[in-house]
Amino acid sequence: MVWKPRVTVAAVIERDGRFLVVEEETSSGLAFNQPAGHLEEGETLVDAVIRETLEETAWHFRPESIIGIHLWEHPQKEETFLRVSFKGVVTQHDETLPLDDGIVQALWMSREELAAQNEKLRSPLVLSTIDDYFAGERYPLSLLKSLLKEA
Length: 151
Description:
Blueprint: E1 6-12, E2 14-15, E3 18-26, E4 29-33, E5 36-38, H1 45-57, E6 59-73, E7 80-93, E8 103-109, H2 111-116, H3 125-134
Parallel strand pairs: 1-7
Antiparallel strand pairs: 1-5, 2-3, 3-4, 3-8, 6-7
């Protein structure tokens, strides 16, 4: 078998001490996560995080910086994830949009509320990314380069 990590993106959006998160159905039950998902063929990482945030929360997301690039191996599955986490703001909510399959709801939660639900977090990346956010980790979007053909 050829090993290759799954490339994912995540949006970290803070407003008044609370973070936009999703409650989603997983194979292990309901879990909390940042708006996040897989990079699709032909899209940039920035385009992916904008799309995933809209699909999962119905919020329009504007990335401002990169918080970090995290490599994580799922302890029960033979899967490794390379996750690029973006800090940004939401600019508009479109209540007419349906949420992605498996998303129960989008909601705003504090770090403390998320930590109290530790057993229901999708991965340890949820809190570690928020901790990186509070630590001031910020990298310019210009760090990301794309040589993809323009659509």
